[in-house]
Design brief:
2 copies of one chain form a homodimer.
Chain A lengths: L1 H4 L2 H12 L4 E3 H7 L5 H13 L3 E6 L5 E6 L1 H5 L1 H28 L3
């Protein structure tokens, strides 16, 4: 479980829904909003989020059927630790990049 | 990068080193302390942590050579957001488990 929660796509989908009015979007809207995510990865990510109660799937029996994904109350509760984590990464990104350059130079990569 | 940082093994290795006096251990000590991690996964995780400056690798040219891995200052700086994230997971674990049971029952798994 911990493996998925810290996963890049999971974090980006949750942050996107959190920043969207009403915290809900259709599949295509989420795909457009998360750069680089594949159809398959988004399907798996949304299924994992729904299964863990972090996202609610709304199905409208229209023609064609409409599906929307909404950040649940528990999903919203995950935002503070996620934002704290994302903030730490943002602040330390330059130092980590410098460490990577030094490591690669040392190991001749 | 974000993908690795939130990875279960990365989090468990950092938390183990953080709880160890001197924040440093040998490879075998880390492997014993992180249940279920394979030799290969620990090697990859430690290399990623070292490459990103979160862990420092100390090499002692003894016979046989000795290697210790130490949580760096930046690595220690990651603890507050990690602990906050781990705390959130701990608090919400029962609700997520209940959601999973309900989802699995609904989808006949």
């Amino acid at each position: 479980m911990l493996t998925h929660l810290g996963d890049k796509w999971t974090i980006l989908v949750i942050l996107l829904l959190a920043q969207t009015p009403g915290n809900r979007l259709r599949f295509s809207g989420i795909k457009r909003g998360v750069a680089g995510i594949s159809q398959r990865m988004l399907t798996l990510t949304l299924r994992m989020l729904e299964r863990n109660g972090l996202v609610v799937r709304h199905y409208f029996a229209e023609v064609p059927p409409r599906v929307e994904y909404e950040l649940s109350l528990m999903g919203k509760g995950m935002l503070p630790p996620l934002e704290f984590f994302a903030q730490w990464i943002g602040e330390n990104w330059p130092a980590m990049e410098a460490a990577r350059r030094e490591y690669d130079a040392r190991s001749g990569q």
